[in-house]
Each structure stands twice: as structure tokens, then as C-alpha cells.
Request: fold
Amino acid sequence: MPDILHRVGIEAPVEKVFRALSEQAGLAAWWTSDVKASPGLGAINHFRFGEQGFNAMKVIELSAGKRIKWLCVDGAKEWVGTELTFDLKPEDGRTVVFFAQRGWKEPVEFMHYCSTKWATYLIGLKSFCEDGKGRPYPDDVDIG
Amino acid sequence: METGPDGKQRIAVRRRMPAPREVVYEAWIDPAGISQWMCPGDIVSAEATLDVRVGGSFRIIMRSTKEVHEHVGTYRVIEPPAKLSFTWSGGNAGTEITLVTVEFIAHGDETELVITHEGFGDRDLAQRYEMGWGTIARKFAEYLTKTGKKNA
Reply:
């Protein structure tokens, strides 16, 4: 089962990055502006992308400043059942984020698309944490 | 309304439809028709995008004169012309993921439609949905009567 993996270094403390990954206002600033999320274990967070689709993520692990893990419970059929983790590693006041979306059944074209798309969103996460400006849907990067 | 083994609320709405079940089933998944009958409460129109296959998604945008409610879900079971089952979230359902099952039971030239909606954590919400699906079933029956006459 193939995984999507990314690493991004952010010039911001882990607390700030953790909030951007767990709270509604943070998630709205880099992934999609149409989000309903609460930073609690077991919460189901909803992310919508207009006509492009939606997904619902159950928060299955939440370790403050260290790790966030979601299970995709609804949305695109290729996504349902995948697990997404954001592991945060502090490094002298900055934060390195290790992202993974694991459990894809097959390396279909949509997986290639999502992999590139994740990279753009994670770069958006970096710029949001550093300069306050992300690229959430519908202002997201068009990758063709 | 009943409470399931998981402690969640479940509601069911039944109504006799004035058409054979093949017709009723096809009408249920026709976006053009949905815009006219999937209008509970003060909703005046609905815009549906459906990808009717197992794992496929749908999106239904309901509009009242004041508000817009977006509902989304994915199809879990598709057994034409007998049964459809899909997840449902959004609108007043908030962040809960609930499950709707629609059964089409043949009674000669008519069909009994049974809509079961389960997984509500909130009793009031389940009650509102019971009323909403009741209105939808009534409007769906009226729509089938109207289109049936047109085709006769």
C-alpha cells in the first residue's frame, strides 16, 4: 500500500504550527476556507472544496505540539480509510512537519494529483505560519 | 423515532408513491427532478450533483429565500430499483455523519418508499429531519403524480 510523504521546515514554534493543524481558524487559513473543525480527540472535522468534493476526518490521535492523526471517514472513495498524520519536530524555535497519508489501496492517477496538491497546501501552511498568508481553497494553487 | 444499540437516534418515513418502483427509483436519482421536490421546510430549490455508484459522492445545495444549505455524502449501497444507502452530512446535521437508506418496495403499479435516517446524536435534530423527510416524501409523491400525468 503506497503512502504520500512530505517534509516541510517552518520558521515558527511548534505551538503555532500545532494550532494551524488542529483549530478551525488555522485549518481554514491553509487547507480550505470551508471547514468545520474542533480540536478534540474523536471530533469529526469536515473539509469542503465546492464542486471538487469534500472529506470528513476523525481525529484519532492528538498529542499537543507533537502529533495529529486523522482517519478519513467520508469523502472520495480513494481517501476513505486512509490515515493522515502530521508529526511535529521542534528545532531551535522552528518546526519540521512530517506529513503522511497512508493506506492508499493503489497508486492511481488521483494519488499523484493529491500528492502534488498536498505539497502546495503544506507550502501554504508554511507561509501561513511564517507570514500569515496561506493558499486555502478556493484560493488554492491550480496544478493542472 | 427509536434509539439504536449505539445510543444514536433513528427515524423512518414511509409513503406510498403513485408509480412503479423502476420509475420511482429513477426519479429519485434524477437531478432535474430533485431540484423540484427535495425542498423541506422553507427551501425553495435544490441543486444536485450525483455520482451514483458505490463510493461516489453527491452534493445537494438547498436554497431558501434567506439561506443556503450544502449537504454532501457518499453512496454505500446501490441496488436498483430496490435500495440506496448513502452517508449524509452538512446543513443542520452539522458535523455528524449520518446514514440514509431509501427502500423502494413494489406494490403493483405503486411503490412504498421507506426512508430511514440513522446516526443522530441529537433528538431534536432527528425530529427536525423526520419532518423534513416527511415533506420531501409528500413533494416527491406530488412530483410523480404530475410527471406521470404528463407521460400518460
Q: What stands out?
A: The mean pLDDT of chain B is 94. The beta strands of chain B are 2-3, 9-17, 45-50, 57-63, 68-79, 83-90, 98-107, 110-120. Chain B has one domain: 2-151. The interface with chain A takes residues 49, 54-57, 59, 70, 72-74, 87, 89-90, 94-97 of chain B (CB under 8 Å).
